[in-house]
Amino acid sequence: MIIVLGNPWFEIDSDGEFGFDEAELAFATALREQARSWDVPYVHSWVGRPEDDSSLLAFVSLSDKHRRVSLIDIGVHLVGSSVRGDRLRNQLYFLPDQPTSLAMETVGSPQELAERTAAWFETLLRKPIVRHEWEHGGQVYASRYLFADTGQGLGQSYSQTLAPPGQAEALINAGHVQGRGWIQTSGLGRPDRIVNIQR
Predict the structure, then answer these.
(1) 3-class DSSP state for residue 116?
(2) Which tens digit of pLDDT belongs to each residue from 77-91?
(3) How many CB atoms neighbour CB 193 within 10 A?
(4) In degrees, to the nearest 5, what angle opens at C-alpha 122 toward C-alphas 18 and 51?
């Protein structure tokens, strides 16, 4: 059974599936109460444990709902009287080895941790997100999502089959490629359109 009580944020498993201790439950309950007053659009959120069960996990997931594209999972790990938060690395919901510019860390009582965590989440939920689009032949062949206030990238895509002829090779030759040949949109110049995703 899930506790909802008219508040969709950070649902808590009340059947004990995650085995929350008293301090963890106090933190999760206080976080839900803090989130109740937010006046931001709802996004998917959850309280549970990461894959290794090492901590309590609370996270939100930002997405482009119109395109059904997941952009970023942001979350915190509560261990004892401390909380660390950042962009989550993968579907295991682990924190990155090296903190990113989004990172936060704090210590305190469950109530204090919940208040600071809620403030951190709310700040991130208020950050404007835009999608840059590049078109060729009337079709979008590349897009990049980013926080509009900082320019921090959240995700990108590039379709060689829809791109202008020869462009992919030029981008590769100029070094705009990462990992296993993923072409980066950084070499495309100004986008044809900028779409607001989150204001």
Answers:
(1) helix
(2) 999 999 999 999 877
(3) 12
(4) 25
